[in-house]
Design goal:
This protein has 3 helices and no strands. By secondary structure, it is mainly α. Helices cover about 50% and strands about 0% of the residues.
Amino acid sequence: LGVCPFSELKHNYAPIVQLERMVGFPGIKRQVLDLLIQVVDLQVAELKGERILEVKLNQRIYGNPGTGKTT
């Protein structure tokens, strides 16, 4: 899985802080944090030598034009 996301976050909290400072988007914020937790859990399991299931991390973000899908 590569570098543990939490070790990267120790050096750069900016993306998470930026997300949390945005007004609204409670569902998106929760989904991003849930995804981060899932990736970290998989990383920890892999480091322990546990068998992990393959998980697709692709996401589809859709909505009206101008609603911040790419930010």
